[in-house]
Specification:
The strands form two sheets. Strands 2-4-5-7-6 form a five-stranded mixed sheet, covered by helices on one side. Strand 6 and strand 7 form a beta hairpin. By secondary structure, the chain is an alpha+beta fold. The longest helix is centred in the middle third of the chain and has 66 residues.
């Protein structure tokens, strides 16, 4: 997992804002200067003056942008405004000096006067001020976009941590129950069954640990993992456990949360079939319904009775994980019949294992 980036206050976004983007955003000002100068083209040398102002604007935009980027978010806003007004004023005065020297060369100005150079800056100063304003808008928009990206990244880290915590909550719960079942077999001197269960448990742990970093797996992988657990319970319960697992080929590549079905099967056996004196049935059907995947699990059980708090850890865990992954585009329904039978229906978006969007 990559490390989170530093907060905006420690890593100003404007330092990563490409300079070319700022210059490109300010380029339309040259066109505005040309349009504003059209009425003066009838005067002698007017085109030369306008060309001078356009070229100096392009030249000054680079150091002005560099200064604004250096001060952005490092000084109070009023200090930034005063500094940019002063800097662009100096640039405009230099432009006027160049224009007056051109006028003296062509005989249009008899002498050099500072009074004239320090006033009449509309043609250049306003253009540079507009450029600074555009720079501020672009930097602010870039900053907001980066902040949104970092927020999404932070939310992704939090979501990942929550999902991992919920995932890891299942492992010790399941392991305790399985080891308890193996202990019962040893106590009953069913050593061959205990040996087979230990071997299957090793395969199951290997499968779950190998996929420990994936929040979602294919239906085929999830059913294979669940089947390993059912094999363990089949050793323990024998003919008392009757299974009917069905999944069409069109759903085997669909994505589902890892360890989604196994805790439900564990609840169904532990709180239902294992408490029956006669054989009990567990049905697991996975099917596609349009743009959604349906997982239906039903089991026999004894008549309902008040349940101790926390006994349905598997179902509570499933609800939380599905909400973290899919929001409101999912549903978990639980129905318990008067005869003790239980049915869980799960509906979630149908997504192919190699795709990011719903199919």
């Amino acid at each position: 997992m990559s490390q989170p980036q530093r907060p905006l206050a420690l890593d100003p976004v404007h330092t990563r804002l490409p300079l070319w983007m700022v210059l490109l955003a300010g380029s339309p000002i040259v066109l505005c200067m040309a349009i504003m100068g059209l009425p003066e083209l009838a005067y002698e040398h007017a085109a030369a003056y306008r060309t001078l102002f356009a070229l100096t604007y392009l030249f000054w935009s680079v150091p002005v942008a560099a200064l604004q980027r250096a001060l952005w978010r490092r000084v109070p806003t009023w200090v930034l405004i005063v500094a940019m007004l002063a800097a662009t004023y100096v640039c405009s005065v230099i432009n006027n000096v160049l224009a007056q020297l051109m006028a003296m060369h062509w005989g249009r100005a008899p002498t050099f006067t500072w009074t004239r150079n320090l006033s009449g800056l509309d043609g250049c100063w306003l253009a540079l001020i507009a450029f600074c304003a555009i720079h501020a808008v672009v930097a602010h928009a870039y900053e907001l976009r980066a902040a949104r990206e970092r927020l999404r990244e932070a939310e992704g880290f939090a979501r990942d941590a929550e999902l991992r915590a919920l995932r890891y909550q299942l492992n010790p719960h399941f392991l305790f129950n399985t080891l308890n079942a193996i202990s019962s077999l040893v106590t009953e001197r069913r050593n061959d069954d205990a040996s087979r269960m230990l071997s299957t448990l090793g395969d199951l742990l290997r499968a779950t640990l190998d996929g420990g970093h994936a929040h979602e797996v294919s239906v085929a992988e999830e059913l294979a993992t669940t089947q390993l657990y059912l094999d363990i319970e089949k050793v323990r319960l024998g003919e008392r456990l009757r299974l009917d697992v069905r999944a069409g080929p069109d759903v085997l590549r669909a994505r589902v949360p890892s360890l989604l079905i196994q805790p439900l099967a564990e609840n169904a056996i532990r709180h239902g079939i294992a408490r029956l004196r006669e054989p009990g049935r567990l049905d697991l059907h996975v099917s596609r319904e349009g743009h959604h995947l349906r997982i239906a699990l039903s089991n026999d059980g004894p008549p309902p009775e008040p349940r101790a708090e926390g006994r349905s850890i598997g179902l509570a865990n499933v609800r939380q994980r599905l909400f973290r992954l899919y929001g409101d585009d999912q549903r978990v329904d639980l129905a318990i019949g008067d005869d003790g039978g239980c049915r869980v229906d799960i509906v979630l978006p149908f997504m192919a294992a190699d795709a990011r969007e719903p199919a």
